[in-house]
Design goal:
alpha/beta, 5-stranded parallel beta sheet, 16 helices, elongated
Length: 634
């Protein structure tokens, strides 16, 4: 079967003309060989029978002459008789036997080479009809062999001439048939390449009919191609116009979101600061409860703005992975500390399984992915809890976030990672204040996963729960564990340390309410606050202070198109300005991509409004400690 398959595959590779020639040669060769074989066999058979008849004649002649000597047992006469028989053409041997098989005379040719022979035996009959002996005559078949050689030579000549004639005829027929077909094939190739194509009308009637039909089809196809190309050009132009409109709309949306986010963050930031100032020293339970409600609303708004900010940072391209090897358990511990109180407040369980696995990833980005997933799971879980675990999978590590929440229907699972897409849950009774996001949490997870060159998989059953899996690269375990700090927040400062006593802090913000709120909060922590709304006011303070402030906290966008980065740079250039021992901290509500890239390139720690007092205190302490360390190194 394999041999037949290879033969058929080899034949398929031949050109059409070669196949036609082969089709002509094979039957002609087979027919010629069969005819020659039959004629040759018949001719050689007739020649062999002729030699047998010749031997029979010689044997009869010898038997007639040997009858009398044999009856007398005259051996000498019998020998001469046998020798006389060998003189006949082609006779190689003559023997005379008695009736009982005794050889009484034997004569062989000695003057030429003996070859294959044909033996004929005839009886010797006496006058009274009795068999008195036998004569054996062996006749050579040299003539048959010579005839066979001559026949094969003639066969080769006839076959060669026949095949040559058939081949020439087949070649002529193949060229006559295949040449128009080849021309058609080349025309089809040109037509497929988009070129104009036509063929000359020639050949047999069938081929001419085919050529005529091709020319008509080519003309119709060319006209269709022209019309189609015209429509494609029109559609392309329309698509480009719509894409341009979409791009303009997208840019307008981005500008609107950024402007709205910035304008709304300013009063929200002030509200955050004033709510903390109201709670400071307050003992009335009713007022504390109302202040707590205000803080809940502020936290909800803060979460919504954080989702917008995360997406704006991704759009701006300011986030790039900072690869490091770290133990996954350290990140799990951080998630447990952050979300365990939230879970307990909702009456849920948060189970974080210990693991000894190490991963190679960006600590901050992976932390944001898992924080979003855990926060989303807690938000949509009424009873039960959330489980976080990890296991090795080949050369990677799979992190699972499993909840017993309301689940996601199959028709929504493919879209939950889209921006602003939300599935209305069956109940929000477990979420304080009925808070809900903007549908950006999972979209941010997907965008961060793409930056990390990994993937996020989701499986869910309605009313049963959801499992989200994150694949990350594994890393060999090492000590100590290098944990990358968050570049925009200080998380290593002792949260129980409320005092900023003896610190001189310069606050720059063009919003009077924010300056008042910061002055109240920082003053409650024991700090000495210097406030300025513009660059001129900040430089005027620098003209008169005895020592530079320990910390500068500035807004990014100020009045008159000025910005905090330029003001800080001006203070650094001032003769009585700030130096390496002064910590710098930006606090902004800006979310425009170009502004975010500018902030990222400045290398100054940044907080995004609204900022809770706890986070602000931690950032000030962390930047102050970093500035003292840098100054000591200098």
């Amino acid at each position: 079967m394999n041999w037949n398959f290879r033969l058929l595959r080899g034949l398929a590779r031949l050109t059409f003309a070669q196949q036609l020639i082969l089709l002509a040669l094979l039957p002609a060769t087979a027919a010629t060989l069969v005819a020659i074989a039959v004629l040759t066999r018949q001719h050689l058979g007739n020649l062999t029978e002729l030699m047998r008849a010749n031997a029979q004649t010689v044997a009869l002649q010898v038997a007639t002459v040997a009858q009398a000597p044999l009856s007398r047992m005259d051996r000498r006469a019998l020998a001469r008789t046998a020798q006389t028989g060998t003189y006949q053409p082609h006779v190689q041997q003559v023997q005379i036997w008695t009736e009982d098989g005794e050889i009484v005379a034997n004569s062989e040719t000695v003057d030429r080479r003996r070859g294959e022979g044909l033996q004929v035996v005839v009886p010797i009959v006496s006058d009274d009809g009795r068999h008195t002996g036998k004569v054996m005559v062996e006749i050579g078949l040299d003539a048959v062999r010579s005839a066979r050689r001559a026949v094969w030579l003639n066969v080769a000549l006839v076959l060669a001439v026949s095949l040559l004639g058939v081949g020439l005829a087949g070649w002529w027929a193949a060229r006559r048939i295949s040449e128009p077909i080849r021309a058609l094939g080349e025309a089809v190739d040109r037509l497929g390449a988009g070129e104009a194509a036509s063929v000359a009308i020639e050949g047999t009637s069938e081929v001419r009919h085919l050529q005529h039909g091709f020319n008509q089809a080519a003309r119709a196809l060319a006209e269709s191609h022209r019309l189609l190309q015209s429509r494609i050009n029109e559609a392309t132009a329309e698509l480009a116009r719509k894409n341009q409109l979409l791009e303009v709309a997208s840019q307008a949306k981005t500008r609107l979101l950024a402007a709205a986010s910035h304008d709304l963050r300013q009063p929200l930031h002030a509200l955050t600061l004033f709510s903390d100032g109201l709670a400071n020293g307050e003992t009335d339970p009713v007022k504390l409860q109302r202040i707590g409600h205000i803080r809940e609303c502020v936290d909800s708004l803060d979460r919504l703005f954080s989702e917008l900010l995360n997406l704006s940072q991704l759009d701006a391209g300011v986030l790039q992975p900072q690869w490091a090897d770290f133990p996954l358990d350290s990140l799990f511990d951080e998630i447990s500390r952050n979300f365990r109180p939230v879970a307990e407040q909702q009456g849920l369980r948060l189970v974080v399984r210990k693991t000894e696995l190490w991963v190679r990833c960006d600590y901050v980005m992976l932390s944001r992915i898992l924080n979003n997933l855990v926060s989303n799971s807690l938000r949509h879980t009424v009873e039960g809890g959330v489980l976080i675990g990890a296991r090795a999978r080949g050369k990677g590590v799979r992190i699972d976030v499993v909840d017993t929440g309301v689940g996601i229907a199959a028709q929504h699972q493919a879209r939950v990672f889209e921006e602003f897409y939300q599935v209305e849950p069956a109940s929000r009774s477990n979420v304080p204040g009925g808070a809900r996001g903007m549908g950006l949490g999972l979209a941010t997870v997907q965008r961060l996963a793409e930056l990390l060159n990994t993937r996020v998989e989701l499986s869910s059953r309605l009313h049963k729960g959801t499992c989200v899996r994150v694949q990350v690269r594994a890393a060999p375990a090492a000590l100590p564990a290098p944990v990358a700090p968050t570049p925009t927040l200080a998380t290593t400062v002792d949260d129980n340390s409320d005092s900023l006593a003896d610190l001189r802090i310069l606050v720059i913000d063009d919003e009077r309410t924010i300056l008042e709120g910061l002055s109240v909060v920082l003053g409650n922590w024991g700090a000495t606050v210097l406030a300025a709304q513009t660059r001129a006011e900040a430089l005027a303070l620098a003209d008169h202070w005895d020592t530079p402030p320990d910390v500068v906290v500035s807004d990014l966008l100020l009045q008159g198109g000025d910005n905090g980065l330029d003001v800080i740079a001006a203070l650094e250039r001032h003769p009585n300005g700030i130096g390496a021992g002064t910590a710098r901290l930006l606090v902004t509500g800006e979310t425009k991509p170009d502004r975010l890239r500018e902030v990222a390139a400045a290398g100054i720690a940044v907080l995004y409004k609204p900022v809770s007092p706890r986070v602000l205190r931690q950032a000030i302490q962390a930047q102050r400690a970093a500035a003292l360390t840098m100054a000591a190194g200098l």
